[in-house]
Design a protein that fits this description.
- The chain has 363 residues and is mainly α.
- It has one domain.
- It contains 15 helices and no strands.
- The longest helix is centred in the C-terminal third of the chain and has 36 residues.
- It is globular, with a radius of gyration of 21 Å.
């Protein structure tokens, strides 16, 4: 039986992506970031926690009952993330090449040939990329790939704790706080700022936390609609408040799990806003929003400077708002023209190969 579509969680992805977008785009409006926007890099952590939750929602029972097919799982995940990653990488390469041919100066790291193999192989967050080149946000896709490869280990632990979700959640939160503290002490910078150096480690506590939160939801921790709705609202207020107050990243990330739990609890209720077709669609294009935001950040300000003779990267408010909101239709186009068709084609290819292989065995 297909896993239930948790529409409020799909919608939440849009807001996580736009939090990241604001974090990257705000300097083009004002060098002074509001406190909440300055925490926008944690939108990646929200995606990581959600990833652990959703993959357990879809695959944990099959893994626990011996029906999990690792090869099919990896192919499905690769079909989900790789086509758009490759398309945006090539897009950045084309823009970089065009700029060089036009005699414009660009950061050589953007089209670093030394960093290209790691980016093509999704290893750029594993310490194999010498510089942060090409489409830099793809480091998190490399980290996701690391978690996908390790999913059987996460699933093995989660399945054995399925009757003890409280212990799983407490253990995951302890891992989160402990790893953040130890990494900060040893590396000299927060784990939440790791990208091409230690980015693969960055996903581990978040993904484990998402798995644990799924166990709590599976046991009915937020099954009452009223409780889930109020819980989601209060948790969101707490996240904003702690971000504004500059709380430790671990505190904010720990609230992400509670928010996901409450929103998942709304899946069977009439939550007209977060389950509406518009917000579900925005959530579905959130991966494209995330992946095109930096190429668009490279293209738009440079084009505005050339066409409108603006001598600074700082834009007037009307232009900046256009800059921000135009990323949505661009992402919608990339989702419908590249991401979804390529994903469906690759999954169909995988299904066909699986059927052909089965038929060969029978024959």
């Amino acid at each position: 039986m297909p896993a239930q579509h948790l529409k409020p969680l799909t919608s939440m992805r849009f807001f996580a992506a736009m939090w990241v977008v604001l974090y990257h785009y705000w300097p083009n409006l004002d060098p002074h970031m509001p406190a909440f926007v300055s925490k926008g890099y944690l939108g990646v952590e929200l995606f990581f926690v959600l990833s652990g939750f959703i993959l357990c929602h879809v695959y944990l029972e099959g893994a626990g009952e011996g029906r999990f097919k690792y090869g099919s799982f990896l192919w499905a995940r690769l079909a989900r993330v790789y086509p758009l990653h490759l398309a945006t990488l090539l897009g950045v390469g084309v823009m970089g090449g065009a700029a060089l041919l036009a005699g414009l100066s660009i950061d050589p790291n953007i089209v670093s040939l030394k960093a290209l193999p790691a980016n093509l192989l999704l290893l750029q967050a594993w310490g194999f990329a010498p510089v942060a080149g090409w489409n830099h946000p793809s480091w998190s896709i490399s980290a996701e790939w690391f978690a996908y490869l390790c999913f059987p280990a996460f699933a093995w632990i989660a399945w054995r704790l399925r009757e003890r979700p409280q212990a799983a959640v407490v253990g995951a939160i302890a891992l989160l706080f402990g790893l953040y503290a130890v990494f900060q002490a040893l590396a000299g910078f927060p784990l939440t700022e790791a990208t091409i150096a230690w980015g693969a480690l960055r996903i581990v506590p978040c993904f484990a936390y998402g798995c644990a939160v799924y166990l709590a939801w599976r046991k009915g921790a937020a099954e009452r609609a009223g409780f889930a709705a109020w819980g989601a609202a209060l948790t969101l207020i707490a996240i904003v408040a702690f971000a504004v107050l500059g709380a430790q990243d671990a505190v904010i990330v720990s609230l992400f799990g509670l928010l996901i739990l409450m929103l998942a609890g709304l899946a069977n209720t009439r939550a007209p806003l977060l389950s509406s077709p518009l917000f579900v669609w925005l959530g579905e294009v959130s991966y494209s929003i995330y992946m095109v935001c930096i190429p668009w950040k490279i293209l738009f300000p440079n084009a505005a400077q050339k066409l409108l003779h603006i001598e600074t990267n700082h834009m007037p408010v009307w232009m900046w708002l256009s800059f921000v909101f135009m990323v949505i239709p661009i992402a919608g186009a990339s989702h419908h023209l590249i991401e979804r068709p390529a994903r469906e084609a690759l999954r169909a290819l995988g299904n066909r190969f699986g059927r052909d292989k089965l038929a060969a065995k029978i024959a």
